[in-house]
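For consistency, the fold was encoded as tokens, as this record shows:
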Amino acid sequence: MASQQFSDRKYVILAIFSAIILIFLARLFYIQIVDDQYKLTARNQAFRYMTDYPARGNIFDRKGKRLVYNQAAYDLMVIPKQVKDLDTIDFCKVLGIDKETFRKRMLKAKQAPNSPLKPSVFEKEISIEHSAILNEKLYKFSGFFLVSRTLRKYPSSIAAHLLGYVGEVAPEMIDTSSYYKNGDYIGISGMEKAYELPLRGVKGIHIEVVDVHNRPQGSYMNGIYDTLAVAGKDIECTLDASLQEYGEKLMQNKIGSIVAIEPSTGEILAFVSSPSYDPNLLIGSTLPKNFVTLQQDSLTPLFNRALMASYPPGSTFKLVMTLIAQNEKVLTRSSSFFCAGGYNYGGARPLKCDAHHGYLELPAGIAHSCNTYFCNVFRVVMDNRKYAKMEDVFSVWRNHVTSFGIGRHLNTDIPNELRGSLPTIPHYNKVFGAHRWHTSTIISLAIGQGELGITPIQNANVVCVIANKGFYFIPHTVRSINKNPNDSLLLRFREKHFAMVTDTSYYNVVIEGMNEVVKHGTAAASQIPGIDYCAKTGTAENKRVINGKVIQLKDHSMFIAFAPKENPKIAIAVAVENAGWGAAWAAPIASLMIEKYLTDSISRPLVEKKMLEGDIVHSNIIGKQKK
């Protein structure tokens, strides 16, 4: 009986072992014969995994002119583990490098974040001509191969601050991204950064069979394991290239900016920051050296003044004050104040006006930019008795100002936007003491001075609010992505944003005054034949604290406008640093931009000549040297 049980158990054990063996044999057969994926892994040394880099999307202006495209180049890649029996002298001769350079590059390819088992860039941006010569000799250099890349090209060399540039991805981005690898390129600034995702496309991978001599033998399995690269999407931007180029010429040898916007859409027509630079300087391997050179330039051409420079708005802010006062029911079109050449607010000396204007009503106050008039406007706003205390009315005033897009981010699509500066109650409590400040303490706000700081794009946006009589669209740079104007990235720019002042009759009074500025007021010299437009000059005080002392420097020339008066097509803000009166430089520059955009011609050649040839930068430098 016991013998029978032992025999049965023996057969059971044999059956179990036989089944296990059969399973392993079947699995081994499947891996080695049936499943090519495992065969591919086992023979990994015979294959090269090549990244196919997609062509980055082109950028066109609103009229279809190409502003950014790609030019072909090649990177020489190396897989250190596959480098065997290399004739280093011959290899260095072909590349035109020395042995020390070769040694350093190979060492870098083996060290983190690179790997001896993975491809790394050995030499960047080899021209098509040189790559053809090199490709014929690569069979002698195992472990090395060429990968096609593209570099950006800027045919018109304009709008550097808006378009931005592309550079190598930073190590920290590699660590946190599953997409970017060492040596990849990414948008660093401007539109290139803001629209990186649609512009970059999607990388592909193809597996190439190579023989023992490092010669490509074609795709593995006819490419069934390859993934295709997807080209980046083309972008139609909002810029008018000819207007942008004209603006940059007008701003040569001047420091400042021009921002022009289409009020009915928020589309940025021109975005000039001066001095600028040729965007072709920041391409590929030349980028680091050129970037340092630009960074060390005393005129700071890399600084985006249109988006990041904060200026006192000067008298351009009087328009906002007018709208707030009307909305608070303390000012009407017929409100009259007397100007005897200044506003006496109890200080050691009155806040001066540039003339003795006598009695003025609101439109004339705007037309002649009377400081006395607008100090009184500020007074009637701040002394409004319907508010219990100063802090209450100041909060209301501040909320009004921010609703015009001042003192906060507009959330435009251009990276690194600054909010400017708008004083707060805690700030004044800290400076003057709680409940110890009042209207006369902060009277400089009335004329756009004091703690106010507005960026040029914010000032242009204020003009859009006035032109639209109460609302604006967020200023933006892209009209469509792959010819789709309703791409999800663009939908937020279709939404209207309303100022707290919504009564169109209040805007009509301001527009009347702005029209008088051009016809009979401070910008009469900048009239445009055949174009009825509305504007406001500004002269912004320019003070700096040097060694504890407040130094008065030459004023900034400021100007804002929209045109034409009916159905406006363009709103513009111009700032020219250290140029004096707003009517002297900013106004004629803006008027030329308006005429160029609306008529594609210039009817005032002498004005144009003066603006094109005007050199404020060097005249100021010479003036300082004489002092």
User: Anything to note?
Assistant: DSSP finds 22 helices and 22 strands in the chain. The chain has two domains: 50-237, 241-626.
